[in-house]
Amino acid sequence: EDEEEEEEERMRSASLLDRPRRKRVITYAQRQAANIRERKRMFNLNEAFDQLRKKVPTFAYEKRLSRIETLRLAIVYISFMTELLDGCSRQEAS
Questions:
Q1: CA pair distance 11, 79, nearest whole angstrom
Q2: Could you give the 3-state DSSP secondary structure of residue 60?
Q3: Are 64 and 49 in contact (CB under 8 A)?
Q4: What are the respective helix, strand and coil percentages of the chain, to the nearest 5?
């Protein structure tokens, strides 16, 4: 009998989890506001990438770097500069 009750309880809790969630209804104004926020977010992100592209040395003839290329090149450049500074520090210490 206890096993049956436990099984029923498991079935009830499972059915609660399986129930489809109600889709959130958003108004036209909310959607418009969300679109504006997303456009602003993307604008700011693109501006930040443009600033980073200007700081990372590249060959002048190259096409504009993609975001992933910019990030990878920035990682390499920062690593190079870190090693360069570490080398200078070691030379000054000796």
A1: 56
A2: coil
A3: no
A4: 75, 0, 25
How far is 77 from 56, CA to CA, in rounded Å? 7
The Cα 48–Cα 37 span in angstroms is: 17
- Neighbouring residues of 52: CB distance < 8 A, sequence distance ≥ 6: 70, 71, 74
Distance, CA of 41 to CA of 38 (rounded, Å): 5
* Contact predicate 53/71, CB 8 Å: no
Residue pLDDT, tens place only, 2-45? 777 888 877 766 666 667 778 888 999 999 999 999 999 999 99
Q: Determine contact, residues 56/77, Cβ cutoff 8 Å.
A: yes
Hey, what domains does the chain have and what are their CATH numbers? 23-93 (4.10.280.10)
Instruction: Provide CB contacts within 8 A for 56, sequence distance 6+.
Output: 65, 70, 73, 74, 77
Residue with tokens 């910019």: 70
